[in-house]
Amino acid sequence: MPTYHYVLASQSFLLEEEPIEEVIRERTRNYQEREKEIDFWVVKQPAFLEAPEMNATKNQCPQPAVAIISTDRQFITWLKLRLEHVIVGKFQAPSETIPEPLASLASV
């Protein structure tokens, strides 16, 4: 079962106040140049927040929420340092309470 790492913030903060589009575009370009498969996704209202074990995290984040999810822990750590006002964490999926995050992605 893969481990997914994430940064989580309110939609207004992550998509309007921060220049995250530029960061994602640059990261995508970098991956393409290195012929590396994309391992991150921007997700509005991520389904993992509905799992009972994520209640505390969900309650900490203003809604509607947006997450950047990745299998690359270092990328998420870098985002946390760059963005500062985000929640970070990880989860494993699929599990009994958390579906596979890529199966029903509603990406931005």
Describe this protein's structure.
Belongs to the ycf54 family. This is DUF2488 family protein. InterPro entries: Ycf54, Ycf54-like_sf. This protein has helices spanning 11-17, 20-33, 55-60, 73-83, and strands spanning 3-10, 40-44, 65-70, 87-92. The protein is α+β, with helices and mostly antiparallel strands. It contains four helices and four strands; from the N terminus they run βααβαβαβ. The chain has one domain (3-92): Alpha-Beta Plaits. Strands 2-3-1-4 form a four-stranded antiparallel β-sheet. It is globular, with a radius of gyration of 13 Å. The longest helix has 14 residues, at 20-33.
CATH architecture: 2-Layer Sandwich
- The CATH superfamily is identified as Uncharacterised protein family Ycf54
Task: Give the C-alpha Rg.
Answer: 13 Å
Beta strand count: 4
Secondary-structure-derived class: alpha+beta
CATH class division: Alpha Beta
Order of the strands making up the biggest sheet: 2-3-1-4
β-strand percent reads: 15-25%
Number of helices: 4
Bin the helical content.
Answer: 25-40%
In round numbers, the mean pLDDT is: 89
